[in-house]
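Record pair follows.
FIRST:
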Amino acid sequence: MSSVYTVSQVNSYIKQLFSTDLLLRKVYIRGEISNCKYHASGHIYFSLKEEGSQIRCVMFASYRRNLSFRMEDGMRIIACGSVSVYERDGSYQLYCTAARPDGIGALYERYEALKRKLSEMGMFAEEYKQPIPRYITRLGVVTAPTGAAVRDIITVSKRRNPGIQIILYPALVQGDGAAESIALGIRTLDRIGVDTIIAGRGGGSIEDLWAFNEEIVARAIFNCRTPLISAVGHETDTTIADFAADLRAPTPSAAAELAVDDMVQVQMSLRQSRIRLAMLMKQRADYERQKADQFRLKLRLNGPEGRLRDARQRLAHLQERIAMLVSSRVKEERHRADGLRQQLERLVTDKRKENRTRTEQLKERLSRDMAQRIRTEKHRLELAESRLAALSPEAMLDRGYVYAQDQQGKALRSAAQIAEGERILLFMKDGSVRTVAEEICPKSAPDAGGGGRDV
């Protein structure tokens, strides 16, 4: 029985076959880009195709940094890399490490390089764009003298304004010398003086439109003092001239509509403005007439007699008002004085009551404090008497203590003051005893039962 392998084993084996093929380790493939996607991770996923065949490709972010152009669908490139198997899907693909434009792609690279250069120079900046004037009478056109573009511009312009003057500079718009011819046409029309210039041509391939991607044309447009509209190719075509122009039109016909006002609409707008102006003038006249009538009425009412009569009436009214105000103020002040007097009397009465109550409270408090102080001092006296009584000699003798003196009457406080056989006098509670010290016993020695006795 033949061996059975897993899918992973087969894919791994095929990948090893690819990796051992020296041709596939570094291969150059020419093709057209399709399904190009720039991933958020920085990787680029795309396919290279030709008629009847295609290969999947990936360029990792680390190699993308060396890419000098942006990949887009339809570009032809030559990609360099290694062909290997992606084991998870079991498909092979080109791991692209470098790429360069091929054919039309080279033109595209030139286009992007010039676009970056002119943009960095500020030739596309909005602050340099001029507004397209309205109601022009002279239109300059730089394009081929034959072809659909010039016919469309003339047809649309004459339809919108039959009296428009169109000055055509017949320029080469394709092939050798086309860029120089277009630039010369722009400078010529700018010098002779027109209101607006349209520079453009009909659609075509990128090679056909390339004259409008040259720096000389972009500089002529940028330096042109006359407002300029670019109208190159179809709406999807974008050239360097479009970025340098003051306004871009998607087609030559659209450029004519942007440059030339529709006189039918202009005349209609003028008629409407004339009607509106007449209405406004009538309204203003009516308003001014009403104001004049009001001024005449005010003048009649505000004449000298009327003003004097009004002044007398105002004076009488003011006199009455002053008298009422004075009377009211006197009553108000009198009422206020009465209120203040009553308030003062209430305050004095309340203050007296408050002082009387406070005096009684102070008397009671003083009596309580004095009684408390007497009790406290009495208690302290009793305690002192008790302590004094406890410390008196009589109290000591009463508790069984004895007071000893020698024969000279000197108090004996230590056994060392007494000699054996010496006569001493002992004082007790109810009398005294004369005795002789038979034996002196120091405090540290055991008590032998001896002591002073009467002889």
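SECOND:
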Amino acid sequence: MITIDYGTLRGLVALLILALFIVIVVWSYSKKRKSAFDEAANSIFEEDTETETELKHSEKNNKQETNNNV
């Protein structure tokens, strides 16, 4: 039967976390992911233009409704 003391277990967990960190860093900086990350980074600007367009249309509709009610 294999016995592992507390210090060895902590060392193995630390190595596991370090390996996981390295895998995440390599994955995030890989060339395959660059286009997806760039698209996600620029998506906030696309949403803003869509929201502005929707606001203009709603303001226009509100003005038309007000004119019709007079």
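COMMENT: The chain has one domain: 6-69.
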